[in-house]
Amino acid sequence: MHNAVYYLLFRENTNEAIWRKIVANVQGQEDVLPIIYYKPFKASKLWIRQHFPEWEIEDYVDKFYNAERYFNVTKFDDLFESDIAYTAFKAFLTGHCMVYPSVFVTIENLFNLQFVFYDHKIAINYHLNKFTKSSD
Length: 136
Description:
Layout (H helix, E strand, L loop, with lengths): L1 H9 L5 H12 L10 H14 L6 H5 L2 H6 L4 H7 L2 H12 L6 E6 L3 E7 L4 E3 L12
C-alpha cells in the first residue's frame, strides 16, 4: 500500500474518493506499520490535511504511532555533518556569497533541509555523489 501512497503523492492526486479508500484501508489494518514503510504515510498525513482540511484523520494518524516513535530523521545529520564537503559549501555561502543559512533543519520529522533561508522561503539540499545511486 505504501507504493500506492507514494504514487498518489508523486502525481499530486486530489481524487477524494481514492484518498478516502486509502484512509479507510489503513484504519482497517490490525498490524503495526513497519518503520521502513513509514515515510509515505507520514507525508500523506500532511497532504490530506492540506487538501482535505475538513477530514477527521486522527484514527489514520494513530496507525503511525509505533513507527513515529522510532523513526528519527535527524540520525542522518551526523552522516552529513561529518563530511568536509558540507562544511566547505557552508563556508562558500557565508564567505563568498555573504548569505547565512540555517543548517540541517528538520521538517515534521520527515525530511532534512540542509541549508535554509527562512526569509526567502528557499532551501538548498547539497547532494554529494557518494550519497546518490549510480544510474545504469
